[in-house]
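Predict structure. Chain length: 268.
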Amino acid sequence: MELCVIGLGKIGTALIQGILNSGLYSQEEIIGSDIKVENTDINEEYFNIKTTNNNVEGVQKADAVLLAIKPQVMDHVLEEISEAVKGKLIISIAAGISNSHLKEKLPLDVRTIRVMPNTPVLVKSGISAVAPGRNATDSDVKLVENILDGVGEVVEVKEHLMDAITGLSGSGPAFIYIMIEALADGGVLAGISREMAIQLTAQTMLGSAKMVLETQDHPGLLKDMVTSPAGTSIRGIEVLEKHGIRGILIDAVKEAALRSKELNSIDN
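Prediction complete.
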């Protein structure tokens, strides 16, 4: 079984690396397609896989197609490859593009699976949500989960949750990077060097997240473990609550989820 990856940007390339590292596919079984690459049987820039700048050519040689492209160009690509993907598995990581939207643009016998990864897949610490389309088989879902296992955690969800997941874990890293930057600014204000402040903040964020995952305790309980009476942490929390930190973050996720829903109706 061969895989064609259309879109060789950062996420598409990270997924290829994860797939190769897991041994799920060999270099000879993957073909990458992007307008910016050369037609070659071995491309050293992309882990020595085959590459082409012709999407139709790439799809014709594959049994499964991974669409690692922006939602704004999705319809153009779907129209281009439509005839060549009959009977094949289509995996889309484009934000906001539903399985039904894919089915509208493709032959009836195509199987579709929608995926929402996030950028930490670049360092093999991502989380990806998988929503099978109506025709997708259990083996199709298993294949997609195996592909994503190489770059982080995987959860299978009902598709109606995908816009919310896009707003939370898809866009979430951007929100967290802002928090890291702001906390580091606070450290600099208190006299710590920029380099050390970023290191301290990022490791604190990483360790805190690991505590949530490994202890499975409620974040509120873990927060209470840090906040001693009349201590430093509760003083800082008072400031966060005065400025509405919870409402701001809730609204950020809500608006990102709404934007994901809007993308499915964009006339590409």
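Summary: The chain has two domains: 3-158, 170-263.
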